[in-house]
């Protein structure tokens, strides 16, 4: 007598169906974690998170369709096929972060090679993971029909319901559980381990009698091999991360912390050799930071009253240090989104020496808040600020785009005194001219008069992100700033500052002839791209 598919199960059809849907739920959660991991890594290692998210997700969705078509060839061996697909997905997805970070660390010093090859590497992983995710549903459709025959529409509805709910859980688990508790590398490895264990348990537990002896051995060996690779990588991940950081930042790393907002790394033992990196991008170099911060602060402070000063960003305390060098300052408010940066600026010996221990000064107050949200808050009881300084990352970084929008500059104007001045770091002028002059156009659209100026900038062999040129090499470049006020008279007064006397003509010399055609950047239509 031939057994029916239901009779070959070790549990009742109802229980078997529930277990298959539970497996779909968990595997879908793992699949979405892999997708988000690739998006996060692409934004961190390459930059421009909108572009990278669009590329990774669109390629992955396309690959899922390809995977669904390819899975048709495995339907006759659905059980062993699904088990092998899950083992392969666990291996590729679990190790993707390690491989991509290793390529960034050890090939990134060959700037042009990394710049040209990194996107292809991300696309390759997106394709591989998408194909494997896409192959899951057709195989699961066959398996769930073996448990209990039902109409195709009902089976598809059940599978996709479990799949979408699992994706929701995975999407929430990535930022709120895996990333803060385990980090990107260990989080991906742990997800891979869960993936292979669930896939293997589902097949061996429910459909083991459907496997041939050869198929059982192949699947068991594949699962053990994948678990061994993931476990070995998890044991070595701390050593790997330290080695990769040394390859990226050099051998003199003193502090490397994930603050919950970003990764912050300090290198160098004294103020002269100190470098501060945020998410892999050089933000402060002890060799030449004084040129940047004096250029940002001096023109605005020399342009009129400066008793009350607002610093947006600048949690390292270096802009506040320059502010306090001017007499008559009564209060400095530093709005910094990351408390971890302020903590380092207070406690790290080299960084606190570099900023002159400004946070010990009673006039300086640190406010841990997003600058945009803080400016939108109630201002009825606040006195206006004489000087506002935007010490923020380059506008070309997607996360900073809203802080260079017309809406943001309009919010700054609300807290600016009638005779106040607003100085903005606007990125390099020569290498990102379109971005720089778009900042100027956006300030004008917000109703402010402007004076653009520039100073020569840094050279760093370890520069990353915005501090690298398009071909991936590091070379000297400039810093661009814009001084703004409600009327041009205040800007004329500030032109006595030494920085403006040299910096304003330097900016005018590289002003593109078509700059007046640049449109302002807004929240719904960001325009910062070179």
Description:
The protein is α/β, with parallel strands linked by helices and 530 residues long. The chain has two domains: 6-249, MFS general substrate transporter like domains (Growth Hormone, Chain: A); 289-517, 3-Layer(aba) Sandwich (Rossmann fold), CATH 3.40.50.150. The protein contains 15 helices and eleven strands. It has helices at residues 13-45, 49-70, 78-107, 111-147, 152-207, 213-249, 289-302, 318-324, 339-347, 349-354, 371-376, 406-415, 433-445, 488-494, 498-509; strands at residues 253-258, 263-267, 275-278, 281-285, 308-313, 331-335, 364-367, 385-391, 416-427, 449-456, 478-485. Helix 1 (13-45) crosses helix 5 and helix 3 (78-107) packs parallel to helix 6 (213-249).
Sheet with the most strands? 7 strands, mixed
- Count of DSSP H/I helices: 15
Which sequence of SSEs, written as H and E, runs from N to C? HHHHHHEEEEHEHEHHEHEHEHEEHH
Going across the biggest sheet, name each strand in turn: 7-6-5-8-9-11-10
The name of the CATH topology of the largest domain is Growth Hormone, Chain: A
Mean pLDDT: 86
Report the radius of gyration as a whole number of Å: 28 Å
- Provide the CATH top-level class of the largest domain: Mainly Alpha
How many domains, as an integer?
Answer: 2
Share of residues in helices: 55-70%
Unreliable runs: 459-476
Give the CA-CA distance, first to last residue.
72 Å
Judging from the principal axes of the Cα atoms, what is the shape? elongated
CATH superfamily of the largest domain: MFS general substrate transporter like domains
In total, how many beta strands?
A: 11
Membrane topology: Multi-pass membrane protein
Subunit structure: Homodimer or homotetramer.
Family: Belongs to the spermidine/spermine synthase family.
Organism: Streptomyces silvensis
């Amino acid at each position: 007598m031939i057994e029916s598919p239901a009779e070959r199960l070790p549990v009742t059809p109802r229980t078997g169906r529930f277990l298959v849907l539970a497996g779909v739920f968990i595997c879908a959660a793992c699949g979405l974690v892999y997708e988000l991991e690739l998006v996060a890594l692409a934004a961190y290692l390459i930059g421009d998170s909108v572009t990278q998210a669009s590329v990774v997700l669109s390629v992955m969705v396309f690959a899922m369709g390809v995977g669904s078509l390819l899975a048709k060839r495995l339907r006759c061996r659905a059980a062993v096929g699904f088990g092998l697909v899950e083992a392969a997905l666990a291996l590729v997805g679990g190790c993707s972060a390690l491989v991509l970070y290793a390529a960034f660390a050890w090939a990134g010093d060959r700037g042009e090679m990394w710049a040209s090859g990194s996107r292809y590497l991300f696309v390759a992983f997106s394709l591989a993971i998408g194909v494997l995710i896409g192959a899951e549903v057709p195989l699961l459709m066959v398996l769930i029909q073996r448990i209990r025959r039902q109409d195709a529409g009902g089976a598809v509805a059940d599978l996709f319901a479990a799949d979408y709910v699992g994706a929701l859980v995975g999407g929430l688990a990535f930022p709120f559980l895996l990333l803060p508790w385990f980090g990107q590398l260990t989080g991906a490895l742990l997800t891979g381990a869960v993936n292979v264990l669930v896939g293997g348990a589902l097949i061996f537990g429910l459909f083991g009698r459907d496997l041939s002896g050869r198929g059982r051995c192949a699947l068991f060996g594949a699962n053990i091999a994948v678990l061994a690779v993931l476990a070995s990588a998890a044991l070595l991940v701390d050593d790997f991360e330290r080695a990769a950081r040394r390859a990226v930042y050099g051998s003199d790393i003193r502090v490397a912390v994930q603050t919950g907002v970003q990764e912050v790394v300090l290198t160098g033992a004294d103020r002269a050799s100190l470098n501060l990196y945020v998410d892999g991008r050089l933000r402060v170099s002890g060799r030449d930071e004084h040129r940047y911060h004096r250029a940002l602060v001096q023109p605005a402070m020399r342009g009129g009253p400066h008793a009350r000063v607002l610093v947006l960003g600048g949690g390292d305390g270096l802009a506040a240090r320059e502010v306090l060098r001017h007499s008559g300052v009564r209060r400095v408010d530093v709005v910094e989104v990351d408390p971890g940066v302020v903590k380092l600026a207070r406690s790290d010996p080299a960084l606190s020496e570099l900023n002159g221990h400004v946070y010990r000064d009673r006039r300086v107050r640190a406010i841990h808040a997003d600058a945009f949200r803080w400016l939108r808050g109630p201002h009825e009881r606040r006195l206006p600020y004489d000087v506002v300084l935007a010490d923020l990352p380059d506008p070309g970084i997607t996360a900073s785009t809203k802080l260079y929008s017309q809406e943001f500059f309009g919010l700054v104007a609300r807290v600016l005194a009638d005779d106040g001045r607003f100085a903005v770091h606007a990125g390099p002028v020569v290498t990102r001219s379109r971005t720089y002059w778009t900042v100027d156009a956006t300030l004008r659209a917000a109703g402010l008069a402007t004076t653009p100026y520039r100073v020569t900038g840094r050279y760093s062999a370890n520069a990353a992100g915005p501090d690298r040129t398009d071909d991936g090499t590091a070379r000297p470049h400039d810093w661009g700033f814009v001084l703004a006020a409600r009327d041009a008279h205040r800007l004329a007064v500030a032109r006595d500052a030494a920085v403006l006397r040299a910096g304003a003509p330097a900016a005018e010399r590289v002003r593109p002839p078509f700059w007046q055609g640049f449109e302002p950047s807004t929240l719904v239509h960001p325009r910062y791209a070179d």
